[in-house]
Amino acid sequence: MATTPSSRRDQVMIGSLPEDFLRVDPSVPTNQQTPQQQQINHDEQTARAIQYGGTGTGANTMGRLSITCMQAKLAKNYGVTRMDPYCRIRIGHAVFETPTDMNGAKNPRWNKTIQCNLPPGVDAIHLEIFDEKAFTTDNRIAWTLVQLPQMIFNGESKEDWYPLSGKQGEDKEGMINLVLAYQQVPVMPMMYAPQPQMVYTQQIPMVMPGYGYMAAPVATYPPAGYPPPMAYPQVPQQPQMVPQQPPQVQQQAPQGAPITQADLQSIQEMFPNMDSEVIRSVLEANRGDKDATVNSLLSMT
């Protein structure tokens, strides 16, 4: 019996779930995990680092990663015309793209440098190469997962060719040339310093023309350990004088010419197939202007 989508939805699984259902085994080495499992691990590490705070690079520094996409050598040109490849890089939850190499085909060259902050717990970057299309969705040609080498965290830069996977198979779609570098960037203290809290402790009198005396609050920042400042003596506040606005004169809409039966008859002769009530409504909307009414009726026919 052939199965249909509705019949497959009606099927249920009876029994206990397997031990590895929706779980990633941490004992499996990173190079033996599937790309989906590796991405789940990276997202979990990033979420844990954000939850517990800290940058992992020191209290006053942050990690700055530099990625230069030099060029790529692809195994095949997909499509009838020459491909227009561009590279998309994902670092944690941030996504970057290189410019499109028009007619780059199998040997695109970008020479694009991307500077970004390295999120805590991220030790690999996900890279994809797309063929840009004008009228359809961009076609994904190749992809790879690049592990960040330990030498770049020691202040060295690394240039290497990394294999690409795709329709041709695992690590058989070509290679891409990348230059990786990493440095510690000092964080300015003012970027994260909490703003002092304003405390309204006193009021001073102010004289405004036409309004009399008004009490205005003064914001102070009392240092820790100091007694609060003495308040100024309260000045009796006089009633505020609100300037009166001149009364607004409501402008009446100009009245049009009176509508006569002769006007309706003359317009009805010009439009014999038009309903008389419609002609009257249009004439009233144009305030008796026959020329405007004729133009409106012409636009309706």
TrEMBL record:
Localization per Swiss-Prot or TrEMBL: Cytoplasm
Superkingdom assignment: Eukaryota
Positions of the CUE domain: 259-301
Keyword Cytoplasm assigned: yes
Segments forming domain C2: 42-162
Gene Ontology cellular component list: cytoplasm
Gene3D superfamilies (UniProt xref): C2 domain (2.60.40.150), DNA helicase RuvA subunit, C-terminal domain (1.10.8.10)
SUPFAM superfamilies: C2 domain (Calcium/lipid-binding domain, CaLB), UBA-like
Pfam families: C2, CUE
One Gene Ontology molecular-function label: ubiquitin conjugating enzyme binding
Matching CDD domains: C2_Tollip, CUE_TOLIP
PROSITE patterns in UniProt: C2, CUE
Keywords: Autophagy, Cytoplasm, Immunity, Inflammatory response, Innate immunity, Repeat
SMART domains documented for this protein: C2 (SM00239), CUE (SM00546)
Keyword flag Cytoplasm: yes
GO biological process: autophagy; innate immune response; ubiquitin-dependent protein catabolic process
Region (Disordered): 238-257
Family stated for the protein in its record: Belongs to the tollip family.
Protein name: Toll-interacting protein
Native source organism of the sequence: Stichopus japonicus (Sea cucumber)
The gene coding this protein: Tollip
